From TrEMBL:
InterPro entries: Asp_de-COase-like_dom_sf, MoPterin_dinucl-bd_dom, Mopterin_OxRdtase, Mopterin_OxRdtase_4Fe-4S_dom, MopterinOxRdtase_cofactor_BS, Prok_molybdopt-oxidoreductase. This is Molybdopterin oxidoreductase family protein. Pfam families: Molybdop_Fe4S4 (PF04879), Molybdopterin (PF00384), Molydop_binding (PF01568). Residues 38-94 form the 4Fe-4S Mo/W bis-MGD-type domain. The lineage of its organism: Bacteria, Bacillati, Actinomycetota, Actinomycetes, Kitasatosporales. Keywords: 4Fe-4S, Iron, Iron-sulfur, Metal-binding. Residues 1-29, 366-390, 725-766 are annotated as: Disordered. CDD domains: MopB_CT_Fdh-Nap-like (cd00508). The keyword 4Fe-4S applies.
């Protein structure tokens, strides 16, 4: 019996649900609010790249006090633990409500007026640039900012500061996938919408702990399984999603390129490749064939530490499926050959003809809420708005015309986030503005990061909680949460969605937009930053992106609220958007072809030896997000996962809760053991959401992918030692005169690993 296509028409919904979804906060039909005067404000979660729809509950005093899931197309009434608790940060007692200032790091912070904080910041910017040149000052943005703000960050650095040194923390997220997509397809985004997963016959997930990092994405995986799709998971750990897979490949970290080259070797050897598709749509095939001929399963199995037959099984399963899809995340991207790892997955999809069709394609799961939109419009060191290249003369001319500046005023390309830290170490960068990032927790090799930031003569940081990085600054600007402003984000499927303002910010708090514009005004560029808010910025962004690959021109706030989201490119207001790419068989390269790329595997940058024979790999856990500056303050999440741990195989002789010292060439830290058979014997795992002395990133290596400049978080050499005492988790930083909210800190000193089972064979906790 032929499987009927699943209807994708968003107007098809059970009675009442469409009215409720589109009601703009007014309950539909028989629905009634729990409190008199309560309003439901439709918006989206602030955390990962799934961007689940939700309603924020606002009381009659105008304060956010709760959340309800929303029947949005993305999440269908589902929220994960982080989404359920996100609202609690809006009116949290740890919120910063006044600028913090000190003239020297030898002084304590004191609260200051906005005028003093802005004036001092501008005077320091001018002093540093007058003494050392414009490029002595840098800007680091963030991929959890609304796209309007990321546009402003890039414009502020290049127009107001006139510096080339600009980058953002999305450099730690999916830039390897971005680089691979641009090389292969000429466009930087996923090729298929989430909904296509429901129509596939084989789903391959590589390096993505979907069940914990993207829990609501699991509904699409289950939907595909319900139709009979085969699930293949590539991961050194038997994660929650891997335990449900038909095939789980527990390869050694850092060997992904060898594995996928070998899978393609088998596809070619058994004549399972789609020669008609390749000849009509791709270049570089012969060179790829010659290279993967060097990776028979026997060789790759030795490199990857897996059975050769498993490589054959994956190749046959994926290539024989009528429709197959591959999605991946940081597990294959956080490597010194992260771009090449992604290219090997693309090569497999192209070789089997799985591109540009319902249920057949390729995509990346975005870690940060605006990981996709955060790099599209100008805060990445090599990009201008609309995804234009800053090294392209015509692209530079176009943006200078829109911004009203002379082409000679636009700085050249800058360096990446980690490279900027190295420049701080060398005192080439003397001043910095950081916005929506926390490098003291999120960047690798903490000692190097701390030294770089300590060398800054001036540092200002924007945040709504005092982060570990902000505690090292001279000025901290208290800014709004996502619920106190409006703006757009682009989720992992490149669907642009709109967040709505639910409450006014606390007294003393300003939007990032307001602060950037006031700084620009004091720097003499006020005429270029005359924006009242996000709407005015978005209108300029639309114009700045028009005609580019990343075209937002046809997207308006009104259309987003009416439709629930529009996938770019969208060149006109009557264009429906582009949820699925390459349906016409053409890519965004001038020749319209897919440019297949040759990849040769190389070992990780941190070599193994007798002193460091094992692999440390890092990642997220379901209760926390990125550097943890938000989630480590929310009681339910702290209680669920109060501290980091080290996952170790039973063969090492530890018991759960034992103090285990993890030693790398950067240092050592002691964690409680979580003993489980769900990890390779030669590998250990530590989640990275906590600061020193419990920071996984005090141990990781700051080696970079030469193309994407992403750090190699997922593999570094280590050894294990027995220890006497587990390192304590510090309290989150708080403003002067405050202490960490006690209700959220009850579980913080718990010395044992989490109570939730992390995998098959996990020891029970008494």
């Amino acid at each position: 019996m032929t499987q009927q296509p699943i209807p994708l028409d968003p107007s098809l919904a059970p009675p009442g649900t469409r009215q409720f979804r589109d009601a703009g906060g007014i309950p539909a039909d028989q629905w009634h609010a729990d409190q008199e005067g309560e309003t439901l404000v439709p918006t989206h979660c602030c955390f990962c790249g799934v961007q689940c729809g939700m309603y924020l509950r606002v009381n009659k005093s105008g304060k956010v006090f709760g959340v309800e899931p929303r029947n949005h197309d993305i999440n269908r009434m589902r929220l994960c633990p982080k989404g359920i608790n996100a609202y609690q940060q809006v009116n949290h007692p740890d919120r910063l409500t006044a600028p913090l200032l000190r003239r020297s790091r030898d002084e304590p912070f004191r609260e200051a007026s906005w005028e003093e904080a802005l004036d001092f910041t501008v005077s320091e910017i001018q002093r540093v640039q007058a003494a050392y040149g414009n490029d002595a000052f840098g800007v680091l943005g963030g991929a959890s900012l609304y796209t309007e703000k990321t546009y402003l960050v890039g414009k502020f650095a290049r127009v107001a500061l006139k510096t080339r040194h600009l980058d953002y923390n999305g450099r730690l997220c999916m830039v390897s996938a971005a680089g691979a997509n641009k090389l292969a397809f000429g466009i930087d985004r996923a090729g298929n919408p989430f909904a296509d997963i429901l129509q596939t016959d084989c789903l391959l997930i590589a390096g993505s702990n979907v069940g914990e990092c993207f829990p609501v994405m699991t509904q699409y995986v289950w939907g595909a399984r319900d139709r009979g799709a085969t699930l293949i998971v590539i991961d050194p750990r038997e994660t929650a999603i891997a335990r449900t897979a038909d095939i789980h490949v527990a390869l050694k970290p850092g060997t992904d390129a060898a594995f996928f080259n070998s899978v393609l070797h088998v596809v070619i050897r058994e004549e399972l490749d789609d020669e008609a598709f390749i000849s009509g749509h791709a270049t570089g095939w012969q060179e790829v064939r010659e290279k993967v001929a060097e990776y028979p399963p026997e060789r790759a199995a030795e490199i990857c530490g897996i059975p050769a037959q498993q490589i054959v099984q994956v190749a046959r399963t994926f290539a024989r499926a009528p429709r197959a899809m591959a999605w991946h995340a940081r597990g294959i991207e956080h490597h010194s050959q992260g771009v090449e790892n992604c290219l090997t997955v693309i090569n497999l999809c192209v070789a089997t003809g799985n591109i540009g069709k319902p249920g057949a394609g390729y995509g990346t799961l975005t870690g940060q809420g605006n990981g996709q939109g955060g790099r599209e419009h100008g805060q990445k060191s090599d990009l201008l708005p609309g995804g234009r290249s800053i090294t392209n003369d015509e692209h530079r001319r176009q943006i200078c015309e829109i911004w009203g500046i002379d082409e000679s005023e636009l700085p050249p390309v800058g360096t990446s986030m980690m490279e900027m830290v190295w420049q701080m170490q060398r005192r080439e960068i003397r001043g910095l503005v950081g916005i929506c990032n926390n490098p003291f927790v999120s960047l690798p090799n903490y000692r190097v990061v701390k030294e770089g930031y300590d060398n800054l003569e001036f540092h200002a940081q924007f945040d709504f909680f005092l982060s570990e990085t902000a505690t090292n600054a001279h000025v901290v600007f208290p800014v709004t949460t996502w619920a106190e402003d409006e703006g757009v984000m682009a989720n992992a499927e490149a669907r642009v969605i709109k967040h709505n303002k639910a409450q006014e910010p606390p007294p003393g708090v300003r939007t990032d937009t307001w602060v950037i514009c006031r700084l620009a005004e004091r720097l003499g560029a006020g005429d270029k930053f005359a924006f009242a808010g996000s709407r005015e910025v978005f209108e300029e962004l639309r114009v700045a992106s028009a005609g580019t690959v990343n075209d937002y021109y046809g997207i308006t706030y009104e259309r987003l609220e009416e439709t629930g989201g529009i996938a770019w490119p969208c060149p006109s207001t009557d264009h429906p958007g582009t949820p699925r790419l390459f349906e016409d068989g053409r890519t965004y390269h001038p020749d319209g072809k897919i440019h297949m790329q040759v990849v040769d595997w190389h070992p990780p940058m941190d070599p193994y030896d007798d002193e460091h024979p094992m692999t440390l790999t890092t990642g997220r856990t379901v209760a926390h997000f990125l550097s943890g500056n938000q989630t480590r303050r929310l009681g339910a999440l702290v209680e669920q996962t109060p501290r980091p741990w080290v996952e170790v195989h039973p063969s090492h002789g530890f018991r759960s809760g034992d103090p285990v010292r993890v030693v790398t060439r950067r240092g050592s830290e002691v964690f409680p053991a979580l003993v489980t058979e769900a990890i390779r014997p030669d590998t250990v795992f530590v989640p990275y959401h906590w600061p020193v002395p419990t920071a996984a990133n005090a141990l990781t290596i700051d080696a970079l992918d030469p193309r994407s400049k992403i750090p190699e978080y997922k593999v570094c050499a280590c050894r294990l030692e027995r220890a006497e005492r587990i390192d304590e988790v510090p309290e989150p930083p708080t403003a002067p005169g405050h202490q960490a909210y006690p209700e959220t800190q009850v579980s913080r000193t718990d010395p044992l690993p989490p109570t939730a089972p992390q995998g098959r064979g996990t020891a029970e906790r008494s």
